[in-house]
Every structure is written in C-alpha cells, then in structure tokens.
Amino acid sequence: MVVVMEPGASTEQIDRVISEVREMGFKSHPIYGEEMTVIGVIGTRTAAAMERLAALSGVERVVPIEHPYKLTSREGRGRPSSFHVGGVHIGGSELVVIAGPCAVEGEEQFLSTARHVKQAGAQMLRGGIFKPRTSPYSFRGLGGKGLPLLAEARAETGLPVVSEVLDPRHVELMADYVDVYQIGTRNMQNFILLDEVGQAGKPVLLKRGFSATLHEMLLAAEYIASQGNDRIILCERGIRCFETSARYTLDLSAVPILKRETHLPIAVDPSHAAGKRWLVPPLACAAVAVGADVLMVEVHPRPAEAQSDGAQALTFGDFDRLMAQIANVPRYKYL
Ligand code: PEP
Ligand code: MN
C-alpha cells in the first residue's frame, strides 16, 4: 500500500506515519517529493492496518496497490507526476526536447552543438562521456576528462545536462556535472547502479532495456524509487524483434501503456531506435503525437566524422527542420 500525505504535511506528521509503519512490522519507503510526500509500505496489507494509517493526522489517503511497482504505479498518485530540472518542467504541459551528440568528443564539437540546439529551441542538452559500446575497440567516450566540457556547455547555454552513468563508482564523480543521470538500455537491470542513482538525489532518465518488457522497466524504476527518488523519466528507445530494417523497433504503444500504468513522465528516443538519420524525424513526430512528455534526439555538427552513432545523428539543419515540424504536431493529451 501507499500512504499519500496531504500537500502541506509536516515533518512530525510524516515521521509519525513512518514510526507507526515500523511498529506494525512493515517497511516504509518515503519519497519527499516536490508536490507531496508519499510513503510506500511493504508488508502484508490488512484492512485494520490501512484504517490505522488513514486515521493519522496529515494523511490524505491510503491506497492499496496490487502491482509489484508500488511507488511508480499510477494508482498511488491518482495523477501524473512532474518535477523540475533547473527551470525545465518535466511532465508539465509542454513537450521537453533533449538534444545533443551521442558522445562528447571535444570542446568545439560539444559547445557548437549545445549552442545550436539551444537556439533551435531544445530545453536540455545530452552528451555521453562514458559510452557503452558493443565492441571494446570502439570509442568509449572521453571519460572523466570530459566532465568539464559538460559544465562548460551548461554554464554557457544554461541548458541542464543529461549524461549516461555506466558504473556505480561514477555516480559521485559525475554529480557536479550532470543534472540528470541517464541509465542506458544495457544497464536497465543493473540493480546496484539503480540503487546508487536512487540514493544520489538527482533526476534519472531510465532507458528501456532493448529486450525488456514494460513490466520489467517499471520494476527497474521501482528500484530507484524505493531508494527515495521518484524523479524518474522512463525512456522508450526501441526494442529488438524479428524486424531488422531499423536498428531497433520503436514501440510507440509503450507511451499510452506506461501512461496508464505509472505516474512518471515518459520520453521517447527515436534516434537509437532508427539507427538512420532519415528515419528519425517521422518517428520523432509520431512520439509527439502519441503524447510523449520528452523527446530525446542525437545531433552532431558533422555526422560523417562522429565517433559513435553518426548514421543516426541529425545535422544542425535537420534539427532545425525537425523543431519546425514538431511545432505543428498536436500532442496527444492524457487525462
Ligand atoms: C545513448 O543514449 O547514448 C545510448 C547509448 O542509448 P541506449 O542506451 O538507448 O543505447
Ligand atoms: Mn548514441
């Protein structure tokens, strides 16, 4: 079950619920959110226990949750959640566009891209410095020495930065340089890493494992939430199936299904699904039409020279055209 506190509940009221939960032999997982505090309660639920908690002061309601994902389920909140990253409202009424190169390769490449996507209307910047690559001989990112470039681009453009964390040992190292930790498709079920970013107190963009079900993705998000952090963006980025004409198959039905199952904001990354530049804009428009909260695309000043994912990178001109097209796509609104 989940205990939803009244919006203005005091620390004493919250602590009282937590100690009551402990006395009843249950475990509590509080989330002190921007909008409200919710407390996940793990243990065998009884009507008496629910009544006892519901009677405490400051409690708005106690919701029984049938799903194994308690803190991320839609039922607990009753409505979608949203949060701020810098001045950017994620899960609010406006689409948020995250753009930037696959990998940070150098100062000119990253800063010129940051400046361009900012002036074209992106609200956030992406760029990997630790790159998960299929081959160990491919470019694996600049590593720690790329961190100052993230900070430089953020300082110059004001865009919050999203970057992938590959290793639990890097969570702290990256903390001052990233605004959102990205967990990549290959790490969706790296449970130690999920625990670690859950404790880090920063928003997380969790990408769907390319062979993971939505149920598994929600449980991966629950790992992060159970550590007290539900500022999570779930990202559909394509799944592997029998079809091989795109790099992966973008599962657009993930958006309405996740909207029904969870209160968390949903992102779509058409770049990694497409694998080909020309396929990115139509999929991006489809993502907007199906009601994604966030769109993430890869952009490179010279895709032919990119050290990773050049084939799917949009040029600056492509990105400008995409932004103009998106402005004309009505975004599906979920209630
Ligand atoms: C990325 O966004 O740079 C990336 C590696 O994505 P994915 O984990 O979806 O392959
Ligand atoms: Mn990439």
Give the cofactors and ligands.
Answer: phosphoenolpyruvate, manganese (II) ion
- Provide the CATH topology of the largest domain: TIM Barrel
How many structural domains does the protein architecture include? 2
Largest sheet: 8 strands, parallel, barrel
Let me know the average pLDDT: 97
User: How would the global form be characterised?
Assistant: globular
Q: Which architecture of the largest domain does the CATH hierarchy give at level 2?
A: Alpha-Beta Barrel
Portion in beta strands: 15-25%
Strand order of the largest sheet: 7-8-9-10-11-12-13-14
Features:
14 strands, 335 residues, Alpha-Beta Plaits, 4-stranded antiparallel beta sheet, 2 domains, 32% helix, 18% strand, TIM Barrel, 12 helices, binds manganese (II) ion, 8-stranded parallel barrel, alpha/beta, binds phosphoenolpyruvate
Describe what this molecule looks like in 3D:
The protein is α/β, with parallel strands linked by helices. The chain has 2 domains: 2-64, Phospho-2-dehydro-3-deoxyheptonate aldolase, domain 1 (Alpha-Beta Plaits, 2-Layer Sandwich), CATH 3.30.70; 83-326, Aldolase class I (TIM Barrel). Helix content is 32%, strand content 18%. It contains 12 helices and 14 strands. It has helices at 11-23, 47-54, 74-77, 107-119, 147-157, 171-174, 191-199, 214-225, 254-261, 270-274, 280-289, 316-326, and strands at 2-5, 27-32, 37-42, 59-63, 83-85, 88-90, 96-100, 124-126, 161-164, 180-183, 204-207, 232-236, 266-268, 294-298. The protein has an 8-stranded parallel β-barrel with strand order 7-8-9-10-11-12-13-14, surrounded by 6 helices. A 4-stranded antiparallel beta sheet has the order 2-3-1-4. It has a two-stranded antiparallel sheet with strand order 5-6. Helix 4 (107-119) packs parallel to helix 5 (147-157), helix 7 packs across helix 8 and helix 11 runs parallel beside helix 12 (316-326). The model has no long low-confidence stretch (mean pLDDT 97). The structure holds phosphoenolpyruvate (PEP) and manganese (II) ion. Phosphoenolpyruvate binds next to loops.
